[in-house]
Design brief:
786 residues, alpha/beta, Rossmann fold, N-(1-d-carboxylethyl)-l-norvaline Dehydrogenase, domain 2, 2-enoyl-CoA Hydratase, Chain A, domain 1, seven-stranded mixed β-sheet, 30 helices, 24 strands, 13% strand, oxidoreductase, NAD(P)-bd_dom_sf, ClpP/crotonase-like_dom_sf
Length: 786
């Protein structure tokens, strides 16, 4: 169909199993109405039972499949007998049924008869080649067919492998890739239609080879996971815990299929111990309760994790496993850890070098085969398995020529890519804005979207830089204040850079300012260790000045003469939340976990958060309900939100909680945040009028304190709050009352509420109960219930 726009407004998923239902949930998260179909079970009066069960399973899933449970309303359920014709309304039809070629071919024959001419058709198969599925279909059907391989759970794993066949219309590939990236929030990797595609081809090879090295070196699975987990910049589940989660039978099946479909030098041979686990012992991982690990209850009733002894196939309690090579590099930057571990001695070093060298060799061999771009292979491993660095980025860290030397010392034949790197003497795959082709020839790095990283950032765009923050020119007259401290805790560098940003906008004629970054989290809040140290040193004047400065900086986002946009993602807690809610507009990642959590450390929000939420909720009251007792629902809502340290589980929930206004924007793909934030600044700038602080905020006075204390009494009697919770809550109630005594019709200014906040914050900070809470949080990462 010539000039077909291929816009996706409605979708259909066939197959309501774990994966199909979760994909339908992600479509609903993105606001896409979706039809979910499955087969009819014989002798079951509910002909939609499997589809209904799939939605219920997604609603109960942990971690949650839905960003907001109400989004389940976008899913229409049905069955393949009664509702097949409904597929005709879908712009995109995806199958997620059993992994059998015959079943998929039969399904496509039925789908072709009812699908509308412009519909994109996809398979979520993890291994069956796409071109085999569409044999016998019409040319028109084949042109609109493209593989779409999601990773489980699809809400949280960023990777979406898009697999065109030789028959796929380039316009379909382009339209679907853009839909996957922008609407569904996925990281798109264009994979070649070969067995295993990209991530599973390389990832399963890595697990199989890790098992071989495990047996050769005699390490335990727990020791190996210590070496291949977070210390190496990889997921907490590392290698063998990941295998348990995936299912050892699934890994065995996929490895066997890949072994049959690939050349002999790509060794997918399962070790005898692995085969014994699967075929004889039936230890299949989490699904059977036993795999490389087994959970059990100890005499004290606490859960213990037992480790498999691969010699006896018995489970042993090894306690807390510590590996010397890992302990030696704790706290060091990732690059230093990788280099140190790659050169480690003894069994630990032998195991890790063997695993890493296998990965380096195989990724290099697959370049140009599974995908035509090195960065796509790196991204597939990062987005699909939670790695911080892909194999080529890791080789750059170790040193490409060092890797080549080591591989040759093992007697390996270098893949063409590494041979070309050796011949050219090139020391890294990525240099500035340049990378190499699979043949080793220099080529421009093609970023998949607007993104700033150390690799792609133009150094000339950094206007000012401090250890904890930078001021960056985003182009088109927009400046970015970028935080880059640990957890982006808020301290002097971060605050001063916001002030510098405001000055630069005015002095240099910029349109406006974005507050954002591309770290792991937007901001986890204030620098607690510093706050505690100052309190214990009785530096109260300094603390008072610092809180005043913090309030001035957060509120400056509202009252500057130019537009400001906050771009939160991940954790936006405490001060990170306060910065966001004071901006003219928020552009939030869909996965934003926002909350005013200060009560967990015995404090209340001191940077305008208490003031802001009270003001928002009173504004939402009807005009006739904005004085006296009629204000009680607004006060209660603010008290509950702050007093229970409620954190949103998504940006959609943050909007329901009141942290986001209706005009704020939610972006599914975190990597588009800065682009959209920049766009919002430019949209606001032409007609922007500088706001003025308000002086008309209605408050309840002592009546608010009385209502809150009454509720607290019941909670205390029921065992829901502790003695010190009451102390903190009373200070919070005093601020929410407006501090106006018995005057129930008073109106106060924003500054008045800010002053009350600061006073309450300092009062609580001076109490031993609060200091104990902060100490406990810093030591354990958990709140103290004193």
């Amino acid at each position: 169909m010539k000039n077909q726009p291929y816009k996706i407004h409605r979708a259909a998923v066939i197959g309501a199993g774990v994966m199909g239902a979760a994909i339908a949930a992600q479509l609903a998260n993105a606001g896409i109405p979706v039809l979910l179909l499955d087969i009819v079970l014989p002798d079951n009066p509910d002909r939609n039972f499997l589809a209904r069960q799939g939605v219920q399973r997604a609603l109960k899933a942990r971690p949650a499949a839905f960003m907001d449970a109400s989004r389940a309303g976008l899913i229409e359920i049905g069955n393949l007998e009664d509702d097949l014709k409904k597929l005709g309304s879908a712009d995109w039809i995806l199958e997620a049924i059993i992994e059998k070629l015959g079943a998929k071919r039969d399904l496509w024959e039925k789908v072709e008869k009812v699908a509308k001419p412009g519909a994109i058709i996809s398979s979520n198969s993890s291994g069956i080649p796409m071109h085999l599925q569409i044999e016998g279909r019409t040319e028109e059907f084949q042109r609109r067919f493209v593989g779409a391989h999601f990773f489980n759970p699809p809400r949280y794993l960023h990777l979406l492998e898009v697999i065109p066949t030789p028959k796929t219309d380039p316009a379909v590939l382009k339209a679907f890739s853009e839909f996957g990236e922008k609407t569904l929030g996925k990281g798109i990797v264009i994979a070649n239609d070969v067995p295993g595609f990209v991530a599973n081809r390389i990832g399963v090879y890595g697990i199989v080879r890790a098992m071989a090295h495990l047996e050769q070196t005699g390490l335990t699975p727990a020791e190996a996971d210590q070496l291949t987990g977070p210390v190496l910049g990889r997921a907490n589940s590392a290698t063998f815990r990941t295998a348990d989660l995936s299912g050892l039978d699934i890994i065995s099946h996929v490895a066997t299929d890949l072994g049959n479909a690939t050349p002999e030098d790509e060794d997918f041979t399962l070790t005898p111990a692995f085969r014994t686990l699967v075929e004889e012992k039936k230890y299949l991982g989490d699904k059977t309760g036993s795999g490389f690990y087994k959970k059990t209850k100890g005499p004290d009733g606490k859960t213990r994790i037992l480790n498999l002894n691969l010699q006896t196939f018995e489970y042993e309690d090894q306690g807390k496993v510590k590996v010397a090579a890992v302990e030696a590099v704790k706290g060091r930057p990732l690059a230093e850890r990788i280099r140190s571990l790659y050169g480690a001695e003894g069994r630990e070093g032998d195991f890790l070098r063997g695993v890493m060298n296998d990965g380096f060799w195989y990724a290099s061999k697959m370049a140009g085969h599974v995908s035509d771009r090195l960065q796509d292979i790196d991204n597939a491993l990062k987005w699909g398995f939670g790695w911080e660095q892909g194999p080529f980025e890791t080789m750059d860290t170790v040193g490409v020529q060092q890797v080549i030397t080591n591989l040759e010392a093992e007697g390996r034949t270098l893949p063409p890519l590494l041979q070309a790197m050796k011949d050219s003497g090139r020391t890294s795959f990525y240099q500035g804005n340049e990378t190499v082709t699979p043949a080793g020839q220099p080529t421009a790095y093609q970023a998949p979207y607007f993104i700033l990283t150390d690799l792609k950032k133009d150094a000339t765009s950094v206007i000012k830089k401090k250890p904890g923050a930078s001021l960056v020119d985003l182009g088109d007259g927009v400046l970015l204040v970028e935080w880059h401290a640990k957890m982006n805790a808020l301290g002097e560098d971060q605050l001063r850079m916001v002030q510098e940003g405001h000055k630069a906008v005015q002095q240099l004629g910029y349109a406006g300012l974005v507050i954002g970054n591309q770290g792991e989290n937007f901001s986890a809040g204030a620098n607690l260790p510093l706050v505690l140290a100052q309190a214990q040193a009785d530096e109260w004047d300094e603390l008072d000045d610092q809180i005043k400065q913090f309030q001035q900086v957060t509120t400056s986002l509202r009252f500057s003469p130019h537009p400001t946009v906050a771009a939160p993602f991940g954790l936006a807690l405490g001060g990170g939340c306060e910065f966001s809610i004071h901006a003219d507009r928020i552009v939030a990642s869909a996965e934003t976990y926002m909350g005013l959590v200060e009560v967990g450390v015995g404090l209340i929000p001191g940077g305008g958060g208490t003031k802001e939420m009270l003001m928002r909720f009173t504004d939402q009251q009807q005009p006739g309900q904005q004085q006296g007792a009629a204000l009680l629902p607004a006060v209660q809502r603010a008290f509950e939100l702050i007093g229970t340290a409620k954190v949103s589980t998504s940006a959609l929930e943050a909007r329901k909680l009141g942290f986001l206004h209706d005009h704020d924007v939610i972006v599914m793909n975190k990597n588009h945040l800065l682009e959209e934030a920049k766009r919002q600044v430019l949209a606001l700038a032409p007609d922007y009028v500088q706001p003025t602080p308000r002086t008309d905020i209605p408050v309840m006075g002592d009546a608010a304190i009385g209502a809150v204390k009454s509720a607290l009494y019941g909670m205390k009697e029921g065992g829901y709050v502790t003695e010190y919770d009451l102390v903190v809550s009373n200070e919070l109630a005093r601020v929410l009352s407006g501090g106006v005594g018995n005057n129930r019709t008073a109106k106060v200014s924003e500054q008045h509420l800010l002053d009350l906040e600061r006073e309450a914050f300092l009062t609580l900070l001076g109490k031993k109960g609060t200091q104990k809470r902060i100490e406990h949080m810093l030591k354990t990462g958990k709140p103290l219930r004193n």
